[in-house]
Amino acid sequence: MPWIKILHIATLLCWCGTLLYLPALLMASAKPRVGSSFHAPAPVILRFLFTHVATPFALLAIMSGTLLFIVGQLTGGWLVLKLAAVTGMVFCHVLCGWLIVRLEQEHLRGLMPASALVAIMAATLMLAVLVLVLGKPFD
Q1: Does the keyword field hold ATP-binding (predicted)?
Q2: If DSSP codes are grouped into helix, strand and coil, which group holds residue 55?
Q3: pTM over 0.85
């Protein structure tokens, strides 16, 4: 069981990192650059990061968490709230994908505030998961 916890924590850290980085990169990509000598196609980088880094880590984190739940026979009111927070993180992940598609289609209206909102929501949900897992209230 310790290797499952290690896998879960490692993949969760990577997923959370990308879930915070994606909205920041979206906001930077939506800003017009004047006089910049470096121009990388941000939508390509964003799509790669989303599909090849964030999504696999998200799936591994959720699968290893499910395995931890089954093997460790975890129960408690805190777990229900934690699963609700993780569901919110999945929603933030999906919103990042939607915002990437909007950026690719050059629909930039409202992209920056939406990205900021996703980042704030994701950070709040991550903090909630951390508090619930470490504190285990309602046990």
Answers
A1: no
A2: helix
A3: yes
Block residue for tokens 């997923």: 15
Q: pLDDT digits over 44-78, tens only?
A: 889 999 999 999 999 999 999 999 888 988 778 88
Q: How far is CA 124 from CA 9, 13, 97, 101, 109, in A?
A: 18, 15, 19, 24, 25
What is the rounded CA–CA span in Å between residue 61 and residue 8? 5
- DSSP E strands: which ranges in the chain? none
CA distance 47 to 96: 10
Task: Tell me the CB-side half-sphere exposure of residue 44, using CA atoms within 13 A.
Answer: 3
Q: From the centroid of its chain, how far is CA 113?
A: 17
Residue 8 C-beta-side C-alpha neighbours within 13 Å: 15
Cα separation of the two ends of the chain = 21
How many helices (H) and strands (E) the chain has is answered by 5, 0
What does the domain layout of the chain look like in residue ranges?
Answer: 2-24+41-135
Asked whether the beta carbons of 27 and 115 are under 8 A apart, the reply is yes
